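The following block was generated as part of the benchmark described in Methods. Ligand: 2-oxoglutaric acid.
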Amino acid sequence: MQKASDRPFHHYFGQLPLNPRYETLGIQDPASLEGAQRFTSIMWPAGNDRFRESVHSFSKVVVELDQMVKRMVFDAYGVGRLYDSYKASTTYQLRCINYKSQLTNETTDVGLIPHTDKNFTSILHQNDVGGLQIKTKDGEWIEAAPSSPSSFLVLASDLFMAWSNDRISACEHQVVLKEKKARYSLALFSYIRDGVVQVPEEFVDDKHPLKYKPFGHFDYLRFYETDEEARKSKNPIKAYCGV
Ligand SMILES: O=C(O)CCC(=O)C(=O)O
Ligand SMILES: [Fe+2]
């Protein structure tokens, strides 16, 4: 397998001791023709137009959904003025995820252990094999069953929480594999490519003191990737840049 990205968390993952059934490949900038082409040429040096077209057209639509949701949230929180510059510094990764149906002597139903994502937003789409669960604010796990085959789930991740000075919570989720079939899902992750992530001044006042220092998104990912303690922490983004 060719390592095709120097960005943290943009490469292949699989055979992880905590998540043995989870395996995923990341496609960088999937909504651009160049991004879809770059990945396709790595996997199929002789070309695969159908795959490239599917990645590109799927990602374009899901990126539009991401932008629409974020614009609504920025407007609702009174910081619509920041949306365009935020959008200009956003980059995307599409992760194609496979949960193996069975491993030899495999007994675990763990697909993915409980976590929050380390990006800004995640948009998830799963096949007919369910398993995604979301933790409510009361600490209860609920099934996130799609209402139709074309359902998408938009989750706020660590960056959305830090940027909003904790007004928005990062969504804790996990995958529990109850069926014997293979499970496939697609996750579009958004990242801040340039500059620092900073809490807007509108979110800070006497009642809401600043909770996060300005930080770079990829610096946070590198910290998380290399720091064992950070990965064990209940709230790694607070450990990284909490005030
Ligand atoms: O497979 C899913 O539905 C969720 C994937 C996920 O949470 C992740 O890759 O971070
Ligand atoms: Fe996740």
